Amino acid sequence: MQIDLDDDTGIANIARMVKVIAMVGSSPKEARPSWGVTRFLQAQGYRVIPVNPGHDGAMILGERVYASLSDIPREAGVQMVDIFRRSEAVGDIVDEALSTLPDLQVIWTQLGVRDDAAAARARARGITVVQDRCPKIEFPRYL
Protein backbone atom coordinates (compact mmCIF):
# COMPACT_ATOMS: atom_id res chain seq x y z
CA MET A 1 0.00 0.00 0.00
CA GLN A 2 1.40 3.38 -0.96
CA ILE A 3 0.13 6.33 1.03
CA ASP A 4 0.37 9.96 0.03
CA LEU A 5 1.90 11.61 3.07
CA ASP A 6 1.36 15.11 1.70
CA ASP A 7 -2.05 15.10 3.32
CA ASP A 8 -3.35 13.82 6.63
CA THR A 9 -5.21 10.87 5.12
CA GLY A 10 -1.93 8.95 4.71
CA ILE A 11 -1.10 8.96 8.42
CA ALA A 12 -4.76 8.33 9.26
CA ASN A 13 -4.75 5.23 7.05
CA ILE A 14 -1.62 3.91 8.74
CA ALA A 15 -3.07 4.57 12.22
CA ARG A 16 -6.23 2.64 11.33
CA MET A 17 -4.67 -0.16 9.26
CA VAL A 18 -1.66 -1.25 11.34
CA LYS A 19 -2.18 -3.57 14.30
CA VAL A 20 1.30 -5.06 14.95
CA ILE A 21 4.42 -2.91 15.24
CA ALA A 22 8.04 -3.98 15.76
CA MET A 23 9.87 -1.29 17.74
CA VAL A 24 13.59 -1.40 16.90
CA GLY A 25 15.61 0.24 19.65
CA SER A 26 13.14 -0.48 22.44
CA SER A 27 14.30 0.24 25.95
CA PRO A 28 13.15 -1.15 29.30
CA LYS A 29 13.90 2.26 30.87
CA GLU A 30 10.77 4.30 31.48
CA ALA A 31 12.62 7.58 30.88
CA ARG A 32 13.51 6.62 27.30
CA PRO A 33 11.29 7.91 24.46
CA SER A 34 10.92 4.41 22.96
CA TRP A 35 9.38 3.16 26.21
CA GLY A 36 6.86 6.02 26.24
CA VAL A 37 5.92 5.49 22.60
CA THR A 38 5.51 1.75 23.19
CA ARG A 39 3.28 2.37 26.21
CA PHE A 40 1.17 4.88 24.27
CA LEU A 41 0.73 2.57 21.28
CA GLN A 42 -0.19 -0.37 23.50
CA ALA A 43 -2.80 1.79 25.27
CA GLN A 44 -4.32 2.48 21.84
CA GLY A 45 -4.66 -1.25 21.15
CA TYR A 46 -1.57 -1.90 19.04
CA ARG A 47 0.68 -4.86 19.69
CA VAL A 48 4.25 -3.56 19.99
CA ILE A 49 7.05 -6.12 19.74
CA PRO A 50 10.33 -4.79 21.20
CA VAL A 51 13.59 -5.36 19.32
CA ASN A 52 16.89 -4.79 21.13
CA PRO A 53 19.84 -7.22 21.04
CA GLY A 54 21.02 -6.10 24.48
CA HIS A 55 17.75 -7.22 26.08
CA ASP A 56 16.94 -10.35 24.05
CA GLY A 57 14.55 -12.61 25.96
CA ALA A 58 13.63 -9.96 28.53
CA MET A 59 10.18 -8.38 28.78
CA ILE A 60 9.26 -4.78 28.01
CA LEU A 61 5.72 -3.74 28.89
CA GLY A 62 4.54 -7.35 28.79
CA GLU A 63 6.11 -8.27 25.44
CA ARG A 64 9.14 -10.48 24.86
CA VAL A 65 12.16 -8.64 23.47
CA TYR A 66 13.80 -10.03 20.32
CA ALA A 67 17.43 -9.48 19.32
CA SER A 68 16.54 -8.69 15.71
CA LEU A 69 13.62 -8.44 13.32
CA SER A 70 14.52 -11.82 11.86
CA ASP A 71 14.04 -13.42 15.31
CA ILE A 72 10.38 -12.37 15.51
CA PRO A 73 8.13 -15.33 14.62
CA ARG A 74 6.55 -14.88 11.18
CA GLU A 75 3.11 -15.58 12.64
CA ALA A 76 3.39 -12.39 14.70
CA GLY A 77 2.32 -10.56 11.54
CA VAL A 78 4.46 -7.44 11.90
CA GLN A 79 2.96 -4.76 9.65
CA MET A 80 5.06 -1.77 10.69
CA VAL A 81 8.64 -1.29 11.84
CA ASP A 82 9.21 1.79 13.99
CA ILE A 83 12.92 2.65 14.16
CA PHE A 84 14.40 4.29 17.28
CA ARG A 85 18.02 4.14 16.12
CA ARG A 86 20.48 6.57 14.56
CA SER A 87 20.11 7.31 10.87
CA GLU A 88 23.28 5.32 10.11
CA ALA A 89 21.57 2.11 11.31
CA VAL A 90 18.39 2.52 9.25
CA GLY A 91 19.68 0.97 6.01
CA ASP A 92 20.52 -2.39 7.58
CA ILE A 93 17.27 -2.43 9.56
CA VAL A 94 15.20 -1.71 6.45
CA ASP A 95 17.02 -4.42 4.47
CA GLU A 96 16.41 -6.94 7.26
CA ALA A 97 12.74 -5.95 7.47
CA LEU A 98 12.28 -6.30 3.72
CA SER A 99 13.84 -9.77 3.72
CA THR A 100 12.21 -11.24 6.83
CA LEU A 101 8.77 -9.68 7.49
CA PRO A 102 6.20 -11.00 5.01
CA ASP A 103 3.36 -8.79 6.32
CA LEU A 104 5.41 -5.57 6.30
CA GLN A 105 3.50 -2.53 5.04
CA VAL A 106 5.14 0.48 6.75
CA ILE A 107 8.65 1.58 7.70
CA TRP A 108 8.58 4.47 10.18
CA THR A 109 11.60 6.38 11.48
CA GLN A 110 11.44 8.53 14.56
CA LEU A 111 12.09 12.25 14.89
CA GLY A 112 15.51 13.19 13.56
CA VAL A 113 16.01 9.81 11.86
CA ARG A 114 16.28 9.59 8.05
CA ASP A 115 17.83 7.43 5.37
CA ASP A 116 16.54 8.42 1.95
CA ALA A 117 18.35 5.58 0.16
CA ALA A 118 16.81 2.97 2.46
CA ALA A 119 13.43 4.67 2.07
CA ALA A 120 13.75 4.42 -1.72
CA ARG A 121 14.56 0.69 -1.48
CA ALA A 122 11.49 0.12 0.68
CA ARG A 123 9.22 2.19 -1.55
CA ALA A 124 10.47 0.26 -4.59
CA ARG A 125 9.12 -2.87 -2.87
CA GLY A 126 5.72 -1.23 -2.29
CA ILE A 127 6.31 -0.35 1.36
CA THR A 128 5.04 2.95 2.74
CA VAL A 129 7.79 4.99 4.41
CA VAL A 130 7.38 7.74 7.00
CA GLN A 131 10.56 9.45 8.17
CA ASP A 132 11.36 11.94 10.90
CA ARG A 133 7.99 11.66 12.63
CA CYS A 134 6.61 10.05 15.77
CA PRO A 135 3.42 7.94 15.88
CA LYS A 136 2.78 9.13 19.45
CA ILE A 137 2.48 12.64 18.02
CA GLU A 138 0.80 11.75 14.72
CA PHE A 139 -1.65 8.97 15.61
CA PRO A 140 -3.77 10.76 18.27
CA ARG A 141 -5.25 13.03 15.62
CA TYR A 142 -6.85 9.98 13.96
CA LEU A 143 -7.70 7.55 16.76
Automatic annotation (TrEMBL):
SUPFAM superfamilies the record matches: NAD(P)-binding Rossmann-fold domains
Occurrences of domain CoA-binding (ranges): 14-113
Top-level taxon of the source organism: Bacteria
Official protein name in the record: CoA-binding protein
Gene3D superfamilies per record: NAD(P)-binding Rossmann-like Domain
PANTHER family: COA-BINDING DOMAIN-CONTAINING PROTEIN (PTHR33303:SF2), CYTOPLASMIC PROTEIN-RELATED (PTHR33303)
InterPro entries xrefs: CoA-bd (IPR003781), NAD(P)-bd_dom_sf (IPR036291)
Record-linked Pfam families: CoA_binding_2
